[in-house]
Amino acid sequence: VPELPEVEVIRRRITPYVTGQTVLAVTVRNAAMRWPVAVEITSRFPGQTIHAIERRGKYLLFRCSEGTLILHLGMTGFLQAFNVSLVPGKHDHLDIALSNGWYLRFNDYRRFGLIVWTEDDPLKHQLLARHGPEPFDETFEGGYLYRRSRGRKASVRQFILDQRIVAGIGNIYANEALFVARIHPARPAGRISLSRYEVLAKAIRTVLGKAVDQGGTLLDSRTGSEYFEHFRLDLLVYGRAGQPCPSCGGAIEHGRISQRSYYCCRRCQR
Ligand SMILES: [Zn+2]
Questions:
Q1: Nearest to residue 61, comparing CAs of 19, 16, 1, 2?
Q2: Residue 17 backbone phi and psi in degrees, to 5
Q3: Is residue 253 a contact partner of residue 241, using CB atoms and an 8 Å limit?
Q4: pTM for the full predicted model
Q5: How far is the CA of 172 from the centre of ligand 1 (A)?
Q6: Is 58 annotated as catalytic?
Q7: Each residue of 16-31: pLDDT tens digit?
Q8: Ligand 1 center to residue 1 CA distance, Å?
């Protein structure tokens, strides 16, 4: 599932082919996404010049002259830029043709992706309005997490997965960051000290930043779902149940909180 690093890598990857270009046409082959592809994508979006692609949490914002296209990659979504005509595959649901001869292709095997158009402030759109700070914002630090977590009985993992607390983290990087911070994922969020939250805030930035850097180098030679697998080669605990902990060598445990998997080392994480 694409989280902040995957979305950010895609953003950086497609930006040079897209910014400053005008949308010539949009081909929708399958409009049945998490929300149906909005009619404005074919009526309003063509003719627009794309000034920038921004990211907010796990969303991409295509800032255009008269509005913004908001795109979420869902569970398996992927965007690639091409300048050669390739026969669309079964899961290539949408193409955006650009004035420089390139086109963007949206591929989504599970179709949980989402594409909407807004002519209002996109950051106030219902999808984004309640997002918390970005992990790389100045306001995101240990004291912030500490204040927001007081009185919360939910697990710290649930807490940092909440997009209203911090934007862009999903299950993979939540597990990774908690391992780096040596905090057990099931520990109640309200019972973690300020100093441990300071460590966690730093761990979140380290884990996400590293993943962006790795993705940036790997993406050049890989495509589609293949690329997401390669992204995860360097994970410390996620998906590694029973394998040795990279820190102490003990077995990595796998459990569930609220029906979602967590991975941790009981010796290293408390
Ligand atoms: Zn360990």
A1: 19
A2: -85, -15
A3: yes
A4: 0.92
A5: 18
A6: yes
A7: 999 999 999 999 998 8
A8: 26
